[in-house]
Every structure is written in structure tokens, then in C-alpha cells.
Write a structure and sequence with these properties.
Number of helices: 6
Number of domains: 1
CATH topology: HIT family, subunit A
Number of strands: 9
GO molecular function: hydrolase activity; nucleotide binding
Biased composition (Acidic residues): 181-194
InterPro entries: AP-4-A_phosphorylase, FHIT, HIT-like, HIT-like_sf
Protein name: Diadenosine tetraphosphate (Ap4A) hydrolase
Domain HIT: 29-140
Strand order of the largest sheet: 4-5-3-2-1-7-6
Oligomer: single chain
Length: 194
């Protein structure tokens, strides 16, 4: 048996198992996490008017984040123009925060759309994965042992990203357990932020 030491995962293992809605089908975590009183514990690192940034509990690389609209829908066409623009702006802020905090060489961004065949574990609440990448960030481990090594604890990544988001224009920070908030009032033109 292969073993990887990951003590930070105990919080996930010991989480409250009674997280179901009235019909017992289970509540969407992307709907319930934003209502939590502790953003840090929920791993919500930033919020805007219509979306939030959540660190992935099972990251492909350190800094693997998801930009998620508050509205529960599996279809982009259900979102308003304001929700779509806000999501795009928050994705841009996420890429900027990752650059400032982790200095990756590149990034992957994408969605799993359409349910089971797309590979997503939560297919009825759309979200964008943003994964920082470095040259050589994969090695022999995934090839010969089907094992991915994550080199930084989620709490440490959270701290670094929180600080990077907080340094951005328009950012406000609340208490120690609050995500960085944005009411995006930046003006945009054809060349980007004005």
C-alpha cells in the first residue's frame, strides 16, 4: 500500500456528516460554504458581488482554486450579464493573485461541463478551475506510482493567496477569518483595466 502523509486532510475526514437538505439528497457545497461564518475554515479566499474563490480541497497543484458564481446553476446561459462579467473579473483577479503569491510559469483554467463524462464531481453548480503550473511540476511519481505529490499545505497556500488578494486595488479585508472582498468598480476598456 502506498502512503502519503497529509495531516491537513483530517479536517475533511472529520467534517460534519449531516450536511443534507430536507429531502436527504445532500446540499451543494458551493451553495452552503459561502454561508459559513468562517471563510478561512471553508477555504474561501476572496468574494465579489456575484462569485467567490475557493481553494480546492484536492488540488492538482498548490494554489488550485475555483471561481464559483453564487447562483446554483449548471449552465452559463442562466447567468445574467452582471454575473458573467463579475465571474470573469474575479477569475482575472485570481490569476493575478496566483502570479503575485506563487509566481507560477503558467496556469490552466477550465470547466467540467455536462455531468459525469466531463469528469467533474459537482456538475450542477458551474465553476472555473484555475490551476497554477510550473515547468517540471510533474515528475515520475504520477507515471510510475499513480501518485501526485502536493508540496504545500492548504493553510499555507490560503495565507499566501489571501495576502495577494488583499494587496489588489479595490480590496477590503474584514476580520481574521474573512475572505478578501471586492466591489469591483474598475473601469474596463478594450485594453483591459483602465
Amino acid at each position: 500500500m502506498d502512503q502519503i502523509f497529509a495531516p491537513w486532510r483530517i479536517d475533511w475526514v472529520e467534517r460534519d456528516g449531516d450536511e443534507s437538505d430536507a429531502d436527504g439528497a445532500g446540499e451543494c457545497p458551493f451553495c452552503s460554504l459561502p454561508d459559513s461564518e468562517d471563510d478561512r475554515e471553508s477555504r474561501i479566499v476572496a468574494r465579489s458581488d456575484h462569485a467567490f474563490v475557493l481553494l480546492n480541497n484536492y488540488p492538482y497543484n498548490p494554489g488550485h482554486a475555483m471561481v464559483i458564481p453564487y447562483r446554483h446553476t449548471g449552465s452559463w446561459s442562466d447567468l445574467t450579464d452582471a454575473e458573467l462579467l463579475d465571474h470573469a473579473k474575479l477569475k482575472t483577479r485570481t490569476l493575478d493573485a496566483l502570479d503575485d503569491a506563487l509566481s507560477p510559469d503558467a496556469a490552466n483554467a477550465g470547466e467540467n461541463l455536462g455531468g459525469g463524462p466531463s469528469g467533474g464531481s459537482i456538475d450542477d453548480h458551474l465553476h472555473t478551475h484555475v490551476v497554477p503550473r510550473w515547468g517540471g511540476d510533474t515528475n515520475f511519481m504520477p507515471v510510475v506510482s499513480d501518485t501526485k505529490v502536493i508540496v504545500e499545505a492548504l493553510d499555507d497556500t490560503y495565507e499566501r493567496l489571501h495576502e495577494a488578494f488583499a494587496a489588489q486595488s479595490g480590496a477590503t479585508t474584514g476580520g481574521e477569518t474573512d475572505a478578501v472582498s471586492f466591489e469591483d468598480d474598475r473601469e474596463y476598456d478594450d485594453d483591459g483595466p483602465a
